[in-house]
Amino acid sequence: MNLFTALTIFSAFSFVIYGVRSLTTEHMKLEFNRYGLQKFRIVVGSLEIIGGLGLIGGLYFPPLYVVASGGLFLLMMLGTATRIYIKDPLPQTLPAFMFMLVNAYLLGVALDIF
Predict the structure, then answer these.
(1) Vertex 15: Cα angle to 78 and 22 (nearest 5)
(2) How far apart are CA 95 and CA 112, in angstroms?
(3) Most-buried pick from 34, 61, 97, 103 (CB within 10 A)?
(4) How many CB atoms lie within 10 A of CB 22?
């Protein structure tokens, strides 16, 4: 398994799990309230699940991969900006930032930039 495939699987499963948690757990409801984004929780959770599944499907249909990795990159860019805006400490901000970088890399590989 190469780095691209390993990162794809890691990112895909992470987003599906996190998306399901966003839709179903009280903790995530409280987190979205803390962000001031409670009305976007269902949309964000759904996009995370769709994006994660899109990464897997995109391994077999490359245009889907570009959309999924690009969408997850944008979602995590906004997530990182939100964490900075609400002044979360670095340990809480790093996961969104790292997933932003991972999906930027995956998008770059999918577009043959890297």
Answers:
(1) 75
(2) 25
(3) 103
(4) 24
In the block, residue with structure tokens 């996190």: 18
- Residue pointed to by tokens 């409801």: 29
**58 CB neighbour count, 10 Å cutoff:** 21
Amino acid at 61: F
Q: What contacts 57, CB < 8 A, 6 or more positions away?
A: 64, 65, 68
- Amino acid at position 109, single letter: V
| pTM of structure | 0.94
CA dist 4 and 2 (Å) reads 6
Residue 8, number of CB atoms within 10 A of its CB: 25
Q: Where are the domains of the chain?
A: 3-110
Query: Could you report the per-residue pLDDT of 48-104, keeping only the tens digit for each?
Result: 999 999 999 999 999 999 999 999 999 999 999 999 999 999 999 999 999 999 999
Residue 49: which of 19, 77, 69 has the closest Cα? 19
